[in-house]
Specification:
The protein has 63 residues and is of the alpha+beta class. The protein has 2 helices and 5 strands, in the order E-H-E-E-E-H-E.
Length: 63
């Protein structure tokens, strides 16, 4: 993950959950309809609404 572009309180909470620059984040399963979606970060699974997730700046890593 590269950066968060969210209000400070939401960004702080996501950082507490492991969404920090340099963290390895992968998209996992999605609920029916695609929202929310589960993301794996540092061994944990976190569900995020599409509106929140679109403010995460991720970089693809080579497989």
């Amino acid at each position: 993950m590269d950066a968060l572009d969210l209000p400070e309180d939401i960004a702080r909470r996501l950082m507490e959950l492991g969404f920090v620059p340099g963290a390895h984040v992968t998209a996992a399963q999605a609920a029916p309809g695609g929202d929310p979606r589960v993301y794996r970060v540092d061994g944990s699974e976190v569900a995020l609404r599409r509106e929140t997730a679109r403010h995460l700046f991720l970089q693809s890593s080579p497989q």
